[in-house]
Amino acid sequence: MYLQLISLHGLVRGENIEMGRDADTGGQVRYVVELARHLAQFPEVSQVDLFTRRLKDKKLDDIYSEEIEDLGENCRIVRLPCGGGKYYRKERLWPYVDEFVDNMIAFTQNEGRTPTIVHGHYADAGYIAREVASVFDVPFIFTGHSLGKPKLDYLLEEGWSREKANDILAIDHRIQVEQECLAAADLVVTSTRHERDTQYSKYHRDEDLRIEVIPPGTDLDRFFPYYEYDLDAQNISDEFKQARMRMQNGIKRFFFHPDRPMILALCRPDRRKNIQALIRAYGKSKELQAIANLAILAGIRDDIETMADNEREVLTDMLLLMDRFDLYGKMAIPKQHDSEFEVPELYRLAASGRGIFANTAFIELFGLTFIESSATGLPFVGTENGGPQDIIENCKSGIIVDVNDEKALTDSMLTLLTDEEKWDEASSNGVNLVRQHYAWETHCENFLSCIKEVVADPVKTPSASGRIAPGTRLGSLDAMLITDIDNTLLGDDQALRTLLQLLHDEKLRFGFGVASGRALELIEEVLVDYEINEIDVVIGSVGSEIYYGREYVADRGWAGRLKHKWYPDRIRESLCELEFLSLQTGPTTQREFKISYDLDDTVDPDEALEQIHEVLDQTRSAYSLIFSHGTYVDILPHRASKGKAIRYLSQKWNMPLERIATAGDSGNDFDMLTGQTAGIVVGNHDEELVTLKDSPHRIYFADGHCAHGLLEGLQHYGLLKPSVTEPVS
Ligand code: GLC
Ligand code: MG
After folding, report:
1. Chain segment 346-355, per-residue pLDDT in tens
2. Hey, which residues does 482 pair with through a beta bridge?
3. Of the residues 577, 612, 638, the one at which a domain ends
4. Candidate from 514, 526, 589 with most ligand 1 atoms within 8 A of CB, to mutate
5. What ligand has the least distance to the C-alpha of 514?
6. In what order do the strands lie in the sheet with 553-554?
7. How far away, in angstroms, is 708 Cα from ligand 2 center?
8. Same structural domain for residues 493 and 621?
9. Residue 537 contacts by C-beta under 8 Å, 6 or more apart in sequence?
10. What is the pLDDT of residue 596?
11. pLDDT band at 49 (very low <50, low <70, confident <90, very high)
């Protein structure tokens, strides 16, 4: 199996993950890296690639700009360009996801192997995975990690407006994409039953949508039991030991009685983590204060005053509560800790002193901290809302409560801190049962057995472009012809029939496409009229649109590129003043990326074109102007033209330009004839193409007209077997 995982945003690297460096680099990043590494160790898995965004940003480590980072044998991080090198938060990446899709397809084509599945993590990568999977006709797996709808509900409750949520978080778009992912997914993986039943239930779901609860694994090498310090300390690395000393000393200085058990809380400074509830419960209970200290590690901070509003508020509240209940000498609020070595040591320090872990978040979707603390043998008291319900059932390593019930919270903490037997039982349950339920091996075994079943079924959303996905089809071709329609493909019916027969016979190795000034609707008419049923690519509206197969699936990557500096309103407005231009009126002539005019035949075209350019330059939009048949004036985005569309296809589908024959008769075919393609100009060509006769490019001027000229050209280049082409002439 070749598994492709995608996790687009944040800072993804194999070593020393920069957990918490920003809001996008957290649990998900660690999850996907661990998942990739562990999956690669299974014998049935031949390769795992974890795809992410390539970053080239002075503020960041160089590793993020490397295309390939090895994560071990058969396992790599692959970084692909997406929206330039600058780091953006995930909500700002939406405009660039199609670029990533293209790059991932091109990368995969180049590798020469089809993925077994494509697995997208979070909505952004879900979008990409869905597109790539459909191109190769393989199953699409989706893991949401967190979802937009519940988040929006929460924000609205917090007093946000929907406009604000859209401005800052593009939340409606995210929800829309999530909905589309659920519609297309062959398998959805969630971490908890709660996530499946309450989060995903807010979306429309097909009855046959397969959702599997497969909790993530824990890094048991880091979260080993606390007692190893007493029993097996020589096997513990110095990095852990040094981290332990740092944490011990860092916390000790806060306490009057450092030897008392510790109630440890560890979370981001986020309102939803509800740290106040814990401080209040502790602050109000003289008993708790008498038997235990409280240590809260709420993120990493330097100067509270310069932190983001929401984080500053949480930390300020924390300090005010500490003051209100006069918890000096009993409550520690260290400023710094790292997640790699210091966090596991914090748990172990607390466990060594027979303390507890506390997490009073309103909701924990998964509850990774519960599992990690349990793995080290530190019992927990925490929220009953969300994932911890599964954890308590599987591991029996703590107590879950309604965190709004202060008495229940205090009582549970007291129970574990005073009842030695209960503490011992919860502690050893945690160590033993986390190994059983939350090991990466277990996770991967479950995941792979689902994958095998999914792969055996036909994919739910096969590529819409016909029986064979364009990725599989275009990737397998040896060469292809892309031809203009009017006066090139059409015009000689008999030669056309010969050509079509030939294309049909050579179908397995030879592809066929058209590139026309016509819009898709008018191209379709031609294909129907002439019974042309086998087509791989349609380039329409002078190269401003690309479609695949007879289902005409639009290439969104192409459309995405054309938006750059395209200001159609300005262009139309400014060209109004030129009297020799009249806007074409046919129903399909004006497109999103094409504005077309007819030029008055009373003016000199050269002078007219000069004037048009002058006017257009003032609009400061990046356009390209294509003039054909002495009368048509097409204005397109600067990145569009038939030739550019073909170069794009060549790169995306990994087909060398030399293997693509292009054919045309007029000015709008110009740039698909120049360049490395095998250009063919038909005998009946327009004056506009005469200059190409002196061009240094590979261009064959056929004697034959229309399809006859095409056959001649293909034979000239040896792209179709001569024996088959012989009968022509
Ligand atoms: C087709 C289109 C027209 C365009 C012309 C030249 O006739 O319908 O809009 O201007 O090709 O590209
Ligand atoms: Mg033509």
Report:
1. 999 999 999 9
2. 513, 662
3. 638
4. 589
5. 2
6. 553-554, 545-548, 537-540, 510-515, 479-483, 660-664, 678-681, 699-701
7. 15
8. no
9. 474, 480, 482, 511, 512, 513, 514, 546, 547, 548, 649
10. 97
11. very high
Q: How many residues does the chain have?
A: 729
**Both 654 and 593 in a single domain?**
no
Ligand 1: residue whose CA is nearest its atom 8: 518
| CATH value at residue 666 | 3.40.50.1000
Q: Kindly report the protein residue whose alpha carbon is nearest to atom 9 of ligand 1.
A: 589
Q: Which atom of ligand 1 is nearest to the CA of 668?
A: 12
| Mean of pLDDT over the chain | 93
Determine if ligand 1 sits within 6 Å of the CB of residue 584. yes
Domain boundary residue among 403, 422, 438? Answer: 438
C-alpha 486 to ligand 1 mean position (Å): 10
- For residue 450, tell me if it sits in a domain: no
Cβ–ligand 1 contact at 634 (below 6 Å): yes
Per-residue confidence at 133, pLDDT binned at 50, 70, 90? very high
Percent of the chain with pLDDT over 70: 98
* Spatial separation of the C-alpha atoms in residues 697 and 52, rounded to whole Å: 38
Q: Are residues 520 and 489 in the same domain?
A: yes
Q: Which atom of ligand 1 is nearest to the CA of 584?
A: 9
Percent of the chain with pLDDT strictly greater than 90: 78
* pLDDT tens per residue, range 94-115: 989 988 998 999 999 899 899 9
* Residue 522: alpha-carbon gap to chain centroid: 35
CA count, 13 A, side-chain hemisphere, 426: 30
666 lines ligand 1 (CB under 6 A): no
Q: Are 536 and 649 in contact (CB under 8 A)?
A: no
Report the CATH number that the domain containing residue 129 is assigned in CATH. Answer: 3.40.50.2000
Q: Which range marks the domain in which residue 421 is found?
A: 228-438
Q: Is 127 in the pocket of ligand 1 (CB under 6 A)?
A: no
* Residue 527 and residue 382 in one domain: no
Q: 91 CB contacts (<8 Å, ≥6 apart)?
A: 168, 169, 170, 174
The answer to whether residue 115 sits within a structural domain is yes
pLDDT tier, 335 (very low <50, low <70, confident <90, very high otherwise): confident
Which atom of ligand 1 is found nearest the CA of 628? 6
Under 8 Å between Cβ of 359 and 265 = yes
Alpha-carbon distance of 413 to 289, in angstroms, equals 11
Is 726 a domain residue?
A: no
With residue 642 as reference, give the H or E element that holds it: helix 642-652
- For ligand 1, say whether the CB of 3 is within 6 Å of any of its atoms: no
Segment 684-692 shows an average pLDDT of 92
Residue with CA nearest ligand 1 atom 12: 517
Flag whether 443 is in a domain: no
Q: Which ligand lies nearest to the CA atom of residue 633 in the structure?
A: 1
**Which residue minimizes the CA distance to atom 10 of ligand 1?**
632
Distance 518 CA to ligand 2 centre (A): 9
Domain total of the chain: 4
Question: In this model, does residue 413 exceed pLDDT 60?
Answer: yes
Atom of ligand 1 nearest to the CA of 516: 11
Q: What's the token pair of residue 485?
A: 């329609």
Regarding whether 506 and 389 lie in a shared domain, the answer is: no
Measured from the CB, is residue 590 less than 6 Å from ligand 1? no
Pocket test for ligand 1, best of 484, 585, 596 (most atoms within 8 A of CB): 596
Output the pLDDT for position 698: 86
* Residue 270 and residue 407 in one domain: yes
The closest ligand to the CA of 686 turns out to be 2
Closest atom of ligand 1 to CA, residue 594? 9
